[in-house]
């Protein structure tokens, strides 16, 4: 093939790409030297190509061969010498391939350019005081964001490629000397075993990383901000950065992590303790309040205090629906409004909130279709859900389950559900970390960063809930 | 199919959830709230008509309004036993009767001519009725009382249970619950005390008011201020609203009359003008039978030795010392310490009560002019102390006379002796012809110490 | 193999929950019928005996830190007798489950659910208990650990309210000695729960000084029960026989009719959580004994067998809780004599250290 003409070679490669429209090629003849350039227009930087490759080659007086190109003319570029069978791979990665007539070797110059956005504050984890940078879809940017926070030689980043069509770059990152090597190997093994056509977002990997794949509860941490991931790596966890995804995964994961918020670490620890307690109460309320209200109304009106009972009895008098149907109706109404407001453009979102909150809620009550206590209970549980936005999907499912349990079995069903789910969560063992740590089982050291958070100056040890090698965090 | 079975095999709880969803949820989906299936009873009244019991229930009627006031109605049922009567009342209501919110049980004093323990035994045992349900009695039939009580809230914004709990906390200061009755009933002495409320009709009202004020004067004006207050409020409110309420009751009763049959009826026989009147009296019960009624003053006599009963006023007259000339002074008891000791002297039991009172002068009259209360001048002279002591002692003796007469030990003498001098006390009881009458052979020593608060 | 051990702390909490089992609902008023207020001392006496059982457990654990009970029994008394013991224990735990279930059911039926709800109760309780047994000791002891403080808080609130309302002392020393022991004998089936610890002896990870943890929590449990007994008898005194749920009744006996409101919801939730845990523990005891009798069958089988036997016995034999109470006082005490005293006594002899040759230290 080395004796073939440049044009023929280009045509051959073009065929491999099924004459894709973004396939581009140039041929440069200079004296008797003939050079061919091939690349994909969509992912390479055209301007850079003209400035740093085409122009120097066109203007040079020197002979054009592999050695001169590599060591002299294009020296400032990111050059690799490749063989013929590596051409396609390199083109896909965003390289420009230089073909020299009469040579069997090729030069690949990395000029990858994806459209990418600047790191901005992610919508679900904003902070009042603290760093606002969030991850972007660009792997390189994300890696550099991590490097910036953990400028240490011990920050290891191992790159894998997953997906037979997507060829997505996945980077396993951890702190050498802190993270448990066994765990890193386990994560690596699991990722390497994946044989899938494409990975489009980091969430694709969650199902493969979980110990209990079928579980309703997510066992992999998700973070949108480099400071959060950095803090998790410092605890000995392993991060998984996936190209094209602004969400970085971390394992092992315990439920309590979602109750912690990066804001907690950037404010007074007394206040964070208070907020965490509120969050905990809120999330418990979100899960059980609708079911509990239903249980009280259907089975246990005798344990309601009289004054409360009178209010409920007065307000539910004359409603066309039974309590169960009423709560289910309000619940679905809220859920529909939520879905709608997510999908609608922001200017229409305002309209839905007006229609939803004011018209539907208020008029529903006034028309005698739904009762005010029912609306309040469901609304509270729906709002409290977003105290911990990462868990909102699980909690919504739990709400439905508890509504059914409370409605059909009463208080005994609600308590039974609580015991069952706690048992179920206790069974989950996320990479050797108990899912409900540090409370079940109680891990004394980790209570320092539990609901009641201590001053950062008093937390001397890394969490024991996770396997890590180096225990001391503060000397 | 295989896939589905596998799925259930993987997670059997899914199957359980499905069972709940299929077999339980549909029933629940269409079952109305418990408040529509069960009635909310806030007070129970027990009467006896011949051999039959008549139970009246003060029932809350849910109304779709935004005021959240209690709208009540009285429903009655008859039966051979209390339980049967209650369930018959349920027939009238068209709902299950649930007593879990009943805070008050009213029985008529007529019922108490016989052993009431067997009448209210059911109420003491039924699980849904709370242990702290107050037991009170009244001279009129319980039904009439409840009919009068249902207008209380409309008239003066007072719920029956609030009125009664005020009484229990501040007037009786002893437990007058069903439970307490049984405690006394099953005790050695078989005596207990329960609260008493009056019903005063429109014309009788002034009379009873006059009565009570007269009584107050005679005894030196020692009536509790709170008492008169709430009683007074009840009297002030006119009869109009009472009639309104009556209309409602009659409307309700007419609607049930056709379906009622033997089950009973909600009667409204001419008591629209009757009002619940708080007279601060209690009834003494011996072995389930009412033996006497204690007036407010006599009740006060018991409460002298009750450490929890404070905030009472003591009015003494004709005080002449270095500060006052022939003055009438009213003191409030601000704090009180009571210590009771028992001992035997020569085989004779002695029940000694040491009371230390902290008094505050709240009002004083000297001759015709009023003296302003001087808070700094809180010193209590010997004269005043003596008068207070004398006043309280005479009150206690008055009460003791009643207790001795009726052989009712409601001040815990037996308990105290049983605990501290069990052997000697039993020996002492054996030595008596009538051990029940032991109060007459017991010495009471009341030592009162008065100090400024 | 997956690690299934539990910490000493969790074992202690299991002890506390076990101690509370059955004893704080109906028992005080039942004992009152026989022993009057001296029921307090009946409970105290039976607890002291139980503490000896606990001591035996520590001795055995010290001697065989890592062995299963099966191994220890087979080593000392052979295969046949050890199986026999397991069969007896199987029955013991089965009837414990039945008793707990009956008592709780009676309470819930009377005070929480107004209507008959037999099916509803079964469907709420059995799956949860089964799941707890299948997931194993480790996860449900962790669950107990999570809820333990909530349960304690519930009990403490009941105690505190009762203490505020309490205005006297129980009448003690009113029973004769035979009456006292008779009523103690009648109720021994309700006690003697520490036998459960022997079943899981190999699964408790205990350092040398961690026996204190178990003792601490067992002590908390005993303290709770005795306080409830004491307050119940001092509040109700002579009417104690009329009240058949001590934990709720000490709450609702408030003098101030309005001030407390309906606090019994706290007692109700406490009872519900406690019953789930107790039933799980006893069912696990059954399953553990079952697995040791039939070595080849796994836990899932034991759960299935448990469900079938439980339902059959419950429907045919027990039915009403009064029957169960009758059994508890008529023939179950004989079973309890074996499990509470005979077996621990036997184990006590097994736990005795081997005689070693007497060594004299040299004195210079």
Task: Give a description of the structure.
- The complex is a heterotrimer of chains A (475), B (453) and C (364).
- Chain A has 475 residues and is of the alpha+beta class.
- Helix content of chain A is 46%, strand content 13%.
- Chain A is built from 17 helices and 12 strands.
- In chain A, the strands form 3 sheets. In chain A, strands 1-2-4-5-3 form a 5-stranded antiparallel sheet.
- In chain A, helix 11 (269-298) runs parallel beside helix 16 (392-409) and helix 13 (323-343) crosses helix 15 (372-384).
- Chain A is elongated, with a radius of gyration of 29 Å.
- Chain B is of the alpha/beta class and 453 residues long.
- Chain B folds into 2 domains: 34-286, no CATH class; 304-452, GMP Synthetase, Chain A, domain 3 (2-Layer Sandwich).
- Chain B has 16 helices and 14 strands.
- Chain B has helices spanning 2-10, 12-30, 34-37, 82-93, 117-125, 142-149, 152-156, 160-172, 178-185, 204-218, 225-236, 240-260, 296-303, 382-406, 413-420, 422-431, and strands spanning 38-49, 52-60, 72-79, 96-98, 104-108, 134-138, 191-200, 275-286, 289-294, 313-319, 327-345, 348-366, 369-371, 443-452.
- In chain B, the strands form 2 sheets. In chain B, strands 1, 2, 3, 4, 5, 6, 7, 8 and 9 form a 9-stranded mixed sheet that branches. In chain B, strands 10, 11, 12, 13 and 14 form a 5-stranded mixed sheet that branches.
- The model of chain B is unreliable at 203-271 (pLDDT under 50).
- Chain C is built from 14 helices and 2 strands; from the N terminus they run E-H-H-H-H-H-H-H-H-E-H-H-H-H-H-H.
- Chain C has one domain (6-351): Amino acid/polyamine transporter I (Up-down Bundle), CATH 1.20.1740.
Please outline what is shown here.
The complex is a heterotrimer of chains A (475), B (453) and C (364). Chain A is an alpha+beta fold and 475 residues long.
Biggest beta sheet summary of chain C: 2 strands, parallel
Radius of gyration of chain C: 21 Å
- Average pLDDT, all residues of chain A: 87
If strands are numbered along the chain, what order do they take across the biggest sheet of chain A?
Answer: 1-2-4-5-3
> What does the main sheet of chain A amount to?
5 strands, antiparallel
Helices and strands, with pairings:
The complex is a heterotrimer of chains A (475), B (453) and C (364).
Chain A: H1 6-16, E1 23-30, E2 33-40, H2 46-59, H3 66-73, E3 79-82, H4 87-92, E4 95-100, E5 106-110, H5 139-149, E6 155-162, E7 168-175, H6 181-192, H7 203-209, E8 221-223, H8 226-234, E9 238-242, E10 248-251, H9 256-259, H10 262-265, H11 269-298, H12 306-316, H13 323-343, H14 346-366, H15 372-384, H16 392-409, H17 411-427, E11 429-430, E12 433-434
Helix pairs in contact in A: 5-8, 11-15, 11-16, 13-14, 13-15, 16-17
Chain B: H1 2-10, H2 12-30, H3 34-37, E1 38-49, E2 52-60, E3 72-79, H4 82-93, E4 96-98, E5 104-108, H5 117-125, E6 134-138, H6 142-149, H7 152-156, H8 160-172, H9 178-185, E7 191-200, H10 204-218, H11 225-236, H12 240-260, E8 275-286, E9 289-294, H13 296-303, E10 313-319, E11 327-345, E12 348-366, E13 369-371, H14 382-406, H15 413-420, H16 422-431, E14 443-452
Parallel strand pairs in B: 1-4, 1-5, 5-6, 6-7, 12-14
Antiparallel strand pairs in B: 1-2, 2-3, 7-8, 8-9, 10-11, 11-12, 12-13
Chain C: E1 6-7, H1 8-20, H2 27-35, H3 39-63, H4 69-112, H5 118-135, H6 137-165, H7 177-186, H8 195-199, E2 204-205, H9 211-236, H10 246-252, H11 264-293, H12 299-318, H13 321-330, H14 332-351
Parallel strand pairs in C: 1-2
Helix pairs in contact in C: 1-6, 1-9, 1-11, 3-7, 3-9, 3-14, 4-11, 4-12, 4-13, 4-14, 5-11, 5-12, 6-9, 6-10, 6-11, 9-10, 10-11, 11-12
């Amino acid at each position: 093939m080395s004796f073939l003409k440049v044009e023929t070679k280009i045509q051959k490669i073009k065929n491999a790409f099924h004459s894709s429209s973004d396939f581009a090629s140039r041929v440069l003849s200079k004296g008797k030297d003939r050079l061919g350039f091939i690349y994909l227009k969509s992912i390479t930087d055209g301007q850079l190509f003209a400035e740093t490759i085409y122009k120097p080659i066109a203007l040079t007086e020197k002979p054009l061969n592999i050695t001169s190109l590599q060591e002299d003319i294009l020296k400032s570029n990111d050059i690799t010498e490749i063989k013929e069978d590596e051409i396609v791979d390199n083109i896909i990665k965003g390289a420009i391939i230089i073909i020299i007539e009469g040579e069997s070797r090729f030069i690949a110059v990395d000029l990858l350019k994806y459209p990418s956005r600047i790191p901005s504050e992610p919508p679900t984890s904003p902070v009042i005081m603290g760093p606002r940078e969030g991850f972007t879809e660009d792997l390189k940017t994300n890696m550099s964001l991590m490097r910036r926070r953990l400028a240490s030689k011990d920050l290891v980043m191992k790159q894998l490629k997953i997906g037979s069509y997507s060829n997505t770059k996945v980077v396993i990152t951890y702190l050498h000397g802190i993270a448990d090597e066994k765990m890193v190997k386990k994560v690596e093994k699991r990722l390497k075993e994946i044989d899938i056509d494409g990975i489009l977002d980091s969430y694709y990997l969650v199902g493969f990383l979980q110990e209990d794949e079928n579980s309703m509860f997510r066992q992999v941490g998700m973070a949108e901000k480099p400071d959060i991931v950095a803090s998790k790596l410092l605890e000995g966890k392993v991060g998984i950065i996936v190209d094209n995804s602004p969400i970085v995964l971390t394992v092992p994961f315990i439920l309590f992590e979602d109750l912690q918020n990066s804001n907690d670490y950037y404010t007074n620890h007394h206040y964070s303790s208070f907020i965490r307690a509120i969050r905990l109460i809120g999330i418990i309320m979100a899960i059980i309040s609708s079911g509990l209200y239903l249980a009280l109304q259907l089975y246990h009106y005798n344990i309601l205090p009289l004054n409360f009972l009178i209010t409920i009895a007065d307000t539910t008098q004359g409603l066309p629906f039974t309590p169960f149907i009423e709560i289910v109706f309000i619940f679905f109404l809220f859920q529909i409004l939520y879905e709608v407001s997510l999908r609608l453009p922001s200017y229409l979102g305002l309209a839905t909130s007006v229609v939803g909150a004011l018209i539907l809620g208020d008029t529903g009550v006034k028309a005698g279709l739904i009762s005010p206590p029912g609306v309040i209970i469901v609304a509270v549980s729906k709002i409290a859900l977003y105290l911990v936005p990462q868990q909102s999907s699980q909690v919504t499912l739990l709400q439905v389950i508890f509504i059914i349990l409370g409605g059909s079995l009463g208080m005994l069903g609600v308590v039974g559900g609580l015991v069952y789910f706690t048992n179920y969560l206790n069974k989950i063992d996320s990479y050797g970390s108990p899912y409900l740590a540090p409370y079940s089982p109680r891990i004394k050291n980790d209570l320092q960063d539990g609901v009641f958070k201590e001053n950062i100056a008093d937390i001397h040890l890394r969490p024991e809930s996770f396997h890590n090698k180096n225990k001391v965090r503060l000397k | 199919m295989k896939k589905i079975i596998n799925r259930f095999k993987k997670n059997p709880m899914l199957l359980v959830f499905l069972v709940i969803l299929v077999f339980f949820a549909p029933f629940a989906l269409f079952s109305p709230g418990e408040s529509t299936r069960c009635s909310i009873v806030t007070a129970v009244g027990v009467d006896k008509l011949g051999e039959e019991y008549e139970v009246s229930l003060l029932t809350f009627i849910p109304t779709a309004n935004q005021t959240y006031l209690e709208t009540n109605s009285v429903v009655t049922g008859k039966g051979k036993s209390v339980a049967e009567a209650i369930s018959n009342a349920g027939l009238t209501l068209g709902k299950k009767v649930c007593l879990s919110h009943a805070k008050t049980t009213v029985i008529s004093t007529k019922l108490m001519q016989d052993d009431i323990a067997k009448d209210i035994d059911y109420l003491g045992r039924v699980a849904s009725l709370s242990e702290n349900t107050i037991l009170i009695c009244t001279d009129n039939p319980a039904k009439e009382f409840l009919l009068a009580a249902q207008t209380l809230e409309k008239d003066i914004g007072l719920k029956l249970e609030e009125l009664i709990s005020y009484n229990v906390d501040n007037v009786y200061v002893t437990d007058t619950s069903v439970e307490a009755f049984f405690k006394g009933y099953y005790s050695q002495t078989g005596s207990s005390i329960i609260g008493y409320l009056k019903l005063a009709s429109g014309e009788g009202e002034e009379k009873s008011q006059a009565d009570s004020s007269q009584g107050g004067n005679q005894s030196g004006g020692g009536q509790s201020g709170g008492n008169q207050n709430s009683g007074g409020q009840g009297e002030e409110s006119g009869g109009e609203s009472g009639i309104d309420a009556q209309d409602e009751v009659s409307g309700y009763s007419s609607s049930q009359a056709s379906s009622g049959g033997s089950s009973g009826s909600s009667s409204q026989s001419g008591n629209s003008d009757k009002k619940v009147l708080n007279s601060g009296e209690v009834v003494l019960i011996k072995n389930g039978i009412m033996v006497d009624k204690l007036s407010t003053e006599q009740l006060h006599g018991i409460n002298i030795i009750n450490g929890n009963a404070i905030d009472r006023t003591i009015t003494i007259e004709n005080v002449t010392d270095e500060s006052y000339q022939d003055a009438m002074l009213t003191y409030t008891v601000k704090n009180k310490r009571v210590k009771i000791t028992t001992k035997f002297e020569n085989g004779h039991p002695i029940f000694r009560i040491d009371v230390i009172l902290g008094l505050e002068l709240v009002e004083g009259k000297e001759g015709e002019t009023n003296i302003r209360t001087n808070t700094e001048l809180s010193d209590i002279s010997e004269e005043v102390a003596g008068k207070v002591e004398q006043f309280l002692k005479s009150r206690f003796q008055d009460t003791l006379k009643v207790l001795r007469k009726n052989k009712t030990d409601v001040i815990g003498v037996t308990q105290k002796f049983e605990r501290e001098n069990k052997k000697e006390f039993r020996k002492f009881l054996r030595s008596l012809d009538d051990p029940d009458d032991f109060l007459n052979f017991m010495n009471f020593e009341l030592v009162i110490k008065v100090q400024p608060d | 193999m997956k690690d299934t051990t539990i910490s000493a702390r969790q074992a202690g909490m299991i002890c506390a929950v076990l101690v509370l089992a059955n004893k704080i609902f109906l028992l005080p008023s039942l004992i009152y019928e026989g022993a009057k207020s001296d029921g307090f001392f009946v409970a105290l006496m039976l607890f002291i005996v139980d503490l000896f059982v606990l001591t035996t457990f520590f001795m055995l654990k010290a001697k065989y830190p890592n062995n299963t009970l099966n191994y220890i029994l087979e080593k000392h008394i052979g295969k046949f007798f050890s199986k026999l013991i397991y069969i007896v224990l199987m029955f013991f735990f089965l009837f414990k489950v039945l008793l707990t279930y009956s008592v709780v059911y009676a309470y819930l039926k009377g005070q929480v659910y107004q209507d008959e709800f037999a099916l509803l109760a079964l469907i709420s309780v059995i799956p949860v208990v089964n799941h707890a047994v299948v997931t194993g000791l480790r996860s449900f002891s962790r669950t107990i650990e999570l809820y333990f403080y909530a349960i304690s808080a519930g009990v403490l609130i009941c105690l505190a309210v009762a203490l505020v309302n309490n205005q006297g002392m129980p009448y003690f020393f009113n029973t004769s000695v035979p009456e006292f022991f008779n009523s103690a004998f009648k109720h021994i089936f309700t006690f003697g729960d520490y036998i459960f610890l022997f079943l899981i002896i190999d699964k408790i990870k205990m350092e040398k000084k961690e026996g204190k943890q178990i003792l601490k929590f067992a002590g908390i449990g005993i303290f709770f029960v005795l306080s409830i007994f004491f307050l119940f008898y001092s509040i109700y005194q002579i009417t104690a026989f009329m009240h058949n749920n001590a934990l709720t009744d000490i709450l609702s006996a408030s003098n101030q009719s309005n001030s407390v409101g309906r606090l019994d919801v706290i007692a109700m939730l406490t009872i519900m959580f406690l019953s789930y845990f107790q039933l799980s523990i006893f069912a696990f005891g059954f399953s553990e004994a079952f697995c040791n009798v039939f070595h080849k069958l796994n836990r899932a089988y034991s759960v299935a067998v448990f469900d079938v036997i439980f339902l059959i016995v419950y429907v045919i034999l027990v039915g009403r809780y009064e029957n169960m109470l009758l059994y508890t006082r008529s023939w179950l005490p004989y079973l309890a004599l074996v499990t509470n005293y005979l077996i621990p006594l036997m184990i006590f002899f097994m736990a005795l250290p081997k005689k070693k040759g007497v060594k004299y230290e040299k004195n210079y």
